[in-house]
């Protein structure tokens, strides 16, 4: 995985356009086979703790919310995508210009993990600037004395997969809120995003070395 | 030589000035604009003709006059539209040039001078109002008035210069891509300017954003005709192709797309119609963000459809993209919006790019793009049909079983019908119902008549019965007894009882 050269990103349309909006918008796409719990993730995100709500509950396909991260305020826009097989070919239209992607799989469904792998690979090929978050859902079904039997995706499968494609770090946020918080934090602290972050009142400079663009954060979240 | 009715001062003028302007050899009169009485009369009788003849930059007073009442002269404007537009463009260019000159000459000009601003406003909104008949320009004027004057003037200057530039590019036959680049460059440069220029120092970010909005709207509304025609010329083939494709896909029902919309319910049908209306309305809008807002409206209606449909199954969860995209495809298939490709291209090329890559409108727009791509690439696999079935349905040889022989044949409201036939069928059902009620009424009426007859008969019978039971016996008439008359009976009474007649 090559390091991203910040100047090469500058001339991308995405950056100039983000500048146009006074608010920093982060586009987050949500991928995953149908029925693996993407919708609940969005609903959780929109309605849990934060009192501020942008959209009435008419649909859970799109949601936007302000998130505080490292002293800045980001506006996360969550784009749900249709997960059915027949719409697979179109997903690349969705993740154009996305800054982060949450790839969901159902812990109780082995097929959904295979799908997730496909999407992750695809994202890696198409979108350089996009960070990928693997997210196993329905963890509650895998807990308890009976839970182990429901689990269809091996505990180490996601880790092995991320190792295969140049691993990042593995984190364990336990609910959707932490997941979105992590996305916001990563976005702010990623030096590639610095020109955008500068738009914010006080500048936070990235903490360490530039990270590879397609950094893997394997995330297991449950709710 | 004295003029017939001229003032003394005109005596100084050279002789040629005194003659009729038309050159007929008679003397002219200043009251008749220098014509002689005959020529003046002729001129008055053919005002339209002369106006046409003298159509040149000189006649701009005419154009200006018409501008002041755009609504009244709409048809006149329409008939000479092209001619007028180029003429106005010329005029606008000149006005703007002079304005620029003015402003350069006096940089320290007092910006609070109202006439200057008003003049510029006229330059922007007046010309667009008459030639484009847009309602947006009024809102724009109102909006500019809320801004402080230096800002308003600066924005106007930019708008005017980019509009002229793009107009010229259009006339020079520039490709839509070049125009798009110019527009995007303009958005970017204006944005930079708004952010960095000291004039705008005190404006808040919300103000700046709404200013970008209004600017985009105004510029694109004014350029719509030239830009969109260039685009639709380029996309004409694709537009027609997808229109034909959607027409040949008219047999697709909601069930084929895995979306559970009960098209037969009246309330859902009304919502579907609303969504379809918004999808079609998109073509009628000019500014990119207005087109986008049509898409948003359509999407909101689709969510409403999904919500109502789900309520029936007791499902109160909000709809996700898994349901939304199929429903959107379904609506696009039903609506068959005109010039779909041109519109999508237009939004893509001339909308402020920030709008499309984030935010709600951008999301729905992306979904629409997906829907269009799906419709174009749709094959038997994406509908879970065999190839043979799909081909037969496409060629119109056969119709899907669910459509024709469905359980709802009796309802006469099959979903594949067009609007007119659907209404006709709806009316037929109503008529049938009316007819059956009418029959019922007739039967009821007959019943009532029979009931009435039996009632009368019954009453008659009862009366007869009673009459028969109590026969009429005539009794002798009773005579009143005259007590005071001397009656024979009293005379026969024994002596103590003999009535005494008192006198």
UniProtKB/TrEMBL annotation, chain A:
Keywords: Nucleotide-binding
Pfam families: Ras
SUPFAM superfamilies with a match to the protein in the record: P-loop containing nucleoside triphosphate hydrolases
A GO MF term: GTP binding
Family annotation (PANTHER family): PTHR47978
Similarity-based family: Belongs to the small GTPase superfamily. Rab family.
Protein's recorded name: Ras-related protein Rab-24
Originating species: Notodromas monacha
From TrEMBL, chain B:
Bias kind Polar residues: ranges: 46-59
Occurrences of domain VPS9 (ranges): 236-384
Annotated signal sequence range: none
Record Pfam families: DUF5601, VPS9, zf-A20
Domain spans labelled A20-type: 14-48
InterPro entries: DUF5601, VPS9, Vps9-like, VPS9_dom_sf, Znf_A20
SUPFAM superfamilies in the cross-refs: Glucocorticoid receptor-like (DNA-binding domain), VPS9 domain
Domain of life: Eukaryota
Recorded GO MF terms: DNA binding; guanyl-nucleotide exchange factor activity; small GTPase binding; zinc ion binding
Keyword vocabulary terms for this entry: Metal-binding, Zinc, Zinc-finger
Region named Disordered: 46-70, 86-112
Zinc found in the keyword field: yes
Biased composition (Basic residues): 91-104
GO terms for cellular component: cytosol; endocytic vesicle
Example GO BP: vesicle-mediated transport
Designated name of the protein: Rab5 GDP/GTP exchange factor
Organism of this sequence: Notodromas monacha
Taxonomic classification: Eukaryota, Metazoa, Ecdysozoa, Arthropoda, Crustacea
